[in-house]
Design goal:
Elements lengths: L1 H13 L9 E2 L1 H6 L6 E5 L5 H6 L6 E2 L19 H10 L7 E5 L5 H16 L3 E4 L2 H7 L24 E2 L1 H10 L3 E4 L3 H5 L10 E2 L3 E2 L15 H9 L9 E4 L6 H11 L3 E4 L2 H5 L7 E2 L4
Helix pairs in contact: 5-10
């Protein structure tokens, strides 16, 4: 038994677990890692290809959000199937050893956060980082941009499902068992019950509230870690308890997802969110008493 233990320890020493990337990175971190051959910078958001062509961090590749989470007549931001995701990611030059950094422009924080969540959903958890402040923070730090086209080889990554996007049954089970916290990431007034245009207003019965705008400052940067920690621990003091987030369509909740991941929480996103939940009269909702 002692020999077996020594063998296991030796194996772990020489073959350690793969290091996880930081969830949120600074422009300096990115600049320090630019020469890493496995680094892949994806420029994404609501931007169009022309925005990317005009200026981007050298070596960046353009990720159109609809390639991974398109809108359909049935619902908004539906994840594509694994086969399609594999093709999209390989076309972007993603390999199994890639280290991905997402870069946004201006106020495209929510859609970029959704792309972060989408990439983790397709099996890349621990291999994706979010560039805090996006391209504006990069330029403000004194780093250069270019309009040179980016050239890269086709990647070899094969997508798989990491179930960080969940359905209404998962949420119902969380409510019934109390095994997870269900958290509304919308502004408090929507959570309380102000009119939204959905069939029913208010929030999922039993859900708590961590509004995503509280995570972002006026420069479209994620706030300091101490502020984020307070925002979360006030509502969810136990980091061992999973948080299931929702919003209107499964987009803005992803800001909380990125922040929660950076703080060490186990996070999931209810993809259907209020677009689905408010339309099903059998699903419980409530308004905050005033």
């Amino acid at each position: 038994m002692k020999r077996l233990f020594c063998c296991i320890v030796t194996f772990l020493y020489f073959f350690p677990a793969e290091a996880q990337q930081p969830v949120i990175v600074s422009p300096q971190w990115l600049n320090d890692n630019l020469n890493d051959p496995n680094l892949v910078i994806l420029y994404t958001g609501f931007v169009i290809k022309g925005d990317f062509d005009r200026e981007h961090i050298e070596g960046s590749r353009f990720l159109w959000a609809d390639w991974l989470a398109p809108n359909t007549p049935e619902a908004s931001m539906n994840p594509v199937d694994v086969k399609t995701a594999t093709k999209r990611l390989q076309d972007l030059g993603i390999n199994k050893n890639s280290k991905i950094v997402l870069c946004h422009k201006g106020g495209d924080v929510t859609i970029t956060s959704r792309m972060f969540c989408s990439l983790e959903y397709f099996g890349l958890q621990g291999k994706v980082s979010y560039l805090n402040g996006g391209i504006e923070a990069w330029k403000k730090a004194g780093y250069t941009v270019t309009n040179k086209p980016s050239v890269h080889k086709k990647g070899n990554y094969v997508a798989s499902i990491n179930p960080v996007l969940v359905n209404k049954d998962y949420v119902l089970n969380a409510l019934n068992t109390g095994s997870q916290l269900v958290v509304d990431a919308r502004l408090k007034r929507w959570y309380d019950g102000d009119i939204t245009g959905n069939p029913r207003d208010g929030h999922i019965a039993g859900a708590l509230n961590i509004p995503y705008p509280d995570m972002v400052d006026s420069t479209n940067s994620i706030k300091p870690a101490a502020v984020l920690e307070k925002n979360f621990t006030t509502v969810a003091p136990d980091k061992n308890k999973e948080i299931v987030l929702y919003c209107f369509i499964g987009q803005t909740a992803c800001v909380d997802y990125v922040v929660g991941r950076s703080l060490g929480y186990n996070m999931k996103v209810y993809d259907g969110s209020m677009q689905e939940w408010s339309r099903d009269e059998k699903l419980p909702m409530e308004k905050t008493k005033k």
